[in-house]
Structures are given as structure tokens and as C-alpha cells.
Design goal:
The chain is an alpha+beta fold and 163 residues long. 32% of the residues lie in helices and 20% in strands. It is built from six helices and five strands, in the order H-E-E-H-H-H-E-H-H-E-E. The strands form two sheets. Strands 1-2-3 form a three-stranded antiparallel beta sheet. A two-stranded antiparallel ribbon has the order 4-5. A hairpin with a 6-residue loop joins strand 4 and strand 5.
Length: 163
């Protein structure tokens, strides 16, 4: 292994080159802002678009929404719900109502809203829940029925046929 020797002249050049700029030349400091939490890189909320959409009492259709990652408590709480004990199929309704954070302009999503959704939308949300919480993403591998080419689509939004 070779060592590099530095003479006094070249050391001064290195120090000059790496010295901080004088105060007059430094750019102004950014305005003080409250400390934002450091992003850990973990995505905890996922946007989606329902195939049909939820129709509220006023007749408005809500298609866009957001679902957060489920916690252990979210998975355990439905087990003690009396509606689930009476009818185990109700488990997905209670579970989805806990993890959907927004549905169009509705921010208070409860089991009654999920009950009134079309079956195709509930099936979509069940699959979306499984993908987000088991696989960690919203992409699905698909095959074109015409050319049999394989590719991925993102289930979290966009209309069918759009890329």
C-alpha cells in the first residue's frame, strides 16, 4: 500500500479550497420552520378509485378515497364486535370501515357506509386491503388477453384503459 505525502504548500491549498465561504458570500439562511417529522420512507396511506362509487343520501357519487395501513388493533377489534360474532361475513365491513380514511368528501367512514356500497366496490376494497397490507403495494401483474403480454397495473387509481 502506497502512502501519499503532503507537503506544507499543498496542505495550505487544500485548506483554502475546503474552507467555508465568508459570511458575506454565504446564501441567506432559510426562514425558521417548525421541525417536520422525518419521513421514514414507509407509505402508510394509499389512494384508490372505486369501480362504481358510493352513492350517498343526497345522490352524490364518491369514487376517490384513501386507505391507511391496518394495525394489529384494527385486525383484532372486529373479533369482539357483536355483529361479527353473529355473522362472520360482517368482519370485512367492520375492518374496511376502520382503515378507509376518506371516501370522496366523506371523512367519517363507518360500517353503515360500507354496508351501502355496491358489492363490486366492496370486493375491490377487500382486494385492495389485502394488497396494501400483505404485499405492501397496489400493483397487480396482469396479462393482455389479446397479445398475451405481461405487465403491471396500479390498482390505486385511474380509469380502466388509461395508462
Amino acid at each position: 500500500m502506497r502512502r501519499r505525502t503532503v507537503t506544507a504548500g499543498s496542505l495550505e491549498e487544500i485548506l483554502e479550497a475546503t474552507a467555508p465561504a465568508p459570511a458575506a458570500e454565504q446564501p441567506p439562511a432559510p426562514a425558521a420552520r417548525p421541525a417536520a417529522p422525518q419521513a421514514s420512507g414507509l407509505r402508510t396511506e394509499f389512494e384508490f378509485e372505486l369501480p362504481r362509487g358510493y352513492v350517498d343520501e343526497a345522490g352524490a357519487v364518491h369514487r376517490q378515497g384513501a386507505m391507511r395501513l391496518a394495525t394489529a388493533r384494527d385486525e383484532l377489534r372486529p373479533q369482539i364486535d357483536l355483529r361479527v360474532k353473529e355473522n362472520p361475513a360482517y368482519l370485512s365491513v367492520v375492518l374496511l370501515s376502520q382503515v378507509i380514511t376518506r371516501l370522496g368528501t366523506i371523512t367519517d367512514v363507518h360500517a353503515g357506509i360500507v354496508e351501502r356500497m355496491y358489492a363490486t366496490d366492496v370486493a375491490f376494497l377487500q382486494d385492495f386491503y389485502r394488497r396494501v397490507n400483505s404485499e405492501g403495494h397496489t400493483r397487480a401483474a396482469v396479462t393482455c388477453p389479446h397479445c398475451e403480454g405481461a405487465f403491471e397495473v396500479d390498482l390505486s387509481g385511474g380509469r380502466l384503459g388509461e395508462s
